[in-house]
């Protein structure tokens, strides 16, 4: 009897514990997970055949945030980050721009190109919006190689843009890159001619294809009968240039001498008016020497057979020479 009583009490306790009381309610809380970020792809089509945004992977690059115009806070370890390269056809459809700098036909050196650093998980909506260019983000000056050529088939012009490094970073020494290359196919439409006041009529340009590939897997140029590759390649490093030109070149020495003479004359004012004819003679001599040099260069290019210029067509610019323009100012 006692056993039955204990069993009944135990059953009543279990039933009371298992059955919900009338004053209690079961609440199921909905846990909302954060929305998945729509990360921008490596290549974003902003406007088909005209504007493309390339999120160029920067493996191991130093990542910093601008705290002031002269102070950078570096992140350790650096997160995955990329460089934004915006390729676009200009309004006249006669040139290709990269971050607002003309890269086809290539502008004269030194052509300084800066690229905005962004985190690799940048949202797709940010690529096309004005919020991309934020004050705290750094624009790095690029070391690069620029190559263009025609392929085996007559489908257009190929452009290779290879970021070989950053001119500066957390350390004073440049940061080396060069793992990938932007490969772009440009088409020329003879039916739509664009007239340039200096260069005459040229076919309208459009972007047919954009890829980011390993350099070893990129499209290769034709090989001429002389054995050389039919291409135009220009390498640029901002650390090798100053306001007078490229270090180690005779052209920079000429510009430096002419610039110092003009500065000396302008700083001393009327006391050195007698030296002005001499300075003017030196500057004019330098200009004449440069003109003769350019004339000979153009003659050698025009007279050679099977040169890259003859294969590349209208897009081929004059041979690269590290000679910037000297500005001559007159003083009373």
SSE layout and pairing:
Blueprint: H1 2-18, E1 43-47, E2 51-57, E3 64-68, E4 71-74, E5 81-89, E6 96-98, E7 101-104, E8 114-119, H2 124-127, E9 139-150, E10 157-166, E11 175-176, E12 180-196, E13 200-214, E14 231-236, E15 241-242, E16 245-246, H3 250-268, H4 276-303, H5 308-312
Antiparallel strand pairs: 1-2, 2-5, 3-4, 5-6, 5-8, 6-7, 8-9, 9-10, 9-14, 10-11, 10-12, 12-13, 15-16
Q: Helices and strands, in N-to-C order?
A: HEEEEEEEEHEEEEEEEEHHH
Q: Give start-end ranges of low-pLDDT stretches.
A: 300-309, 317-332
Beta content: 25-35%
Which descriptor suits the 3D outline? Answer: globular
Q: What is the terminal-to-terminal distance?
A: 129 Å
> Over the alpha carbons, how many angstroms does the gyration radius reach?
32 Å
What count of helical segments does DSSP give?
5
Helix content: 10-25%
Whole-number count of domains? 2
Q: Whole-number average pLDDT? A: 75
Count of distinct strands: 16
The largest β sheet comes out as: 12 strands, antiparallel
| Classification by helices and strands | alpha+beta
Report on this model:
The protein has 332 residues and is an alpha+beta fold. It folds into 2 domains: 43-242, no CATH class; 245-315. Helices cover 22% and strands 33% of the residues. The chain is built from 5 helices and 16 strands. It has helices at 2-18, 124-127, 250-268, 276-303, 308-312, and strands spanning 43-47, 51-57, 64-68, 71-74, 81-89, 96-98, 101-104, 114-119, 139-150, 157-166, 175-176, 180-196, 200-214, 231-236, 241-242, 245-246. The strands form 3 sheets. Strands 1, 2, 5, 6, 7, 8, 9, 10, 11, 12, 13 and 14 form a 12-stranded antiparallel beta sheet that branches. Strands 3-4 form a two-stranded antiparallel ribbon. A two-stranded antiparallel sheet has the order 15-16.
């Amino acid at each position: 009897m006692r056993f039955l009583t204990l069993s009944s009490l135990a059953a009543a306790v279990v039933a009371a514990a298992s059955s919900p009381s009338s004053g209690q309610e079961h609440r199921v809380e909905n846990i909302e997970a954060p929305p998945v970020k729509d990360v921008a792809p490596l290549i974003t089509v902003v406007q088909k055949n005209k504007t493309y945004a390339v999120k160029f992977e920067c493996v191991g690059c130093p990542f910093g945030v601008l705290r002031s115009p002269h102070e950078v806070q570096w992140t350790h370890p650096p997160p995955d980050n990329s460089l934004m390269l915006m390729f676009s056809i200009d309004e006249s459809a006669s040139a290709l721009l990269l971050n607002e700098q003309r890269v086809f036909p290539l502008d004269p050196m030194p052509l300084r190109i800066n690229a905005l650093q962004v985190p690799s998980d940048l949202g797709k909506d940010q690529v096309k919006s004005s919020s991309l260019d934020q004050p705290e983000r750094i624009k790095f000056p690029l070391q690069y190689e620029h190559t263009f050529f025609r392929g085996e088939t007559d489908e257009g012009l190929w452009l290779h843009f290879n970021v070989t490094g950053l001119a500066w970073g957390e350390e004073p020494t440049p940061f080396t890159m060069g793992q990938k290359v932007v490969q772009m196919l440009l088409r020329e439409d003879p039916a739509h001619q664009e007239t340039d006041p200096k260069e005459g009529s040229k076919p309208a340009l459009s972007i047919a294809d954009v890829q980011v590939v390993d350099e070893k897997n990129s499209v290769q140029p034709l090989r001429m009968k002389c054995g050389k590759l039919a291409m135009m390649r220009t390498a640029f490093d901002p650390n090798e240039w100053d306001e007078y030109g490229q270090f180690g070149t005779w052209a920079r020495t000429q510009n430096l001498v002419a610039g110092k003479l003009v500065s000396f004359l302008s700083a001393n004012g009327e006391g050195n008016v007698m030296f002005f004819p001499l300075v003017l003679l030196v500057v004019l001599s330098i200009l004449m020497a440069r003109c003769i040099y350019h004339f000979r260069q153009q003659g050698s290019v025009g007279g050679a057979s099977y040169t890259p210029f003859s294969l590349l067509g209208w897009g081929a610019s004059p041979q690269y020479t590290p000679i910037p323009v000297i500005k001559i100012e007159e003083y009373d």
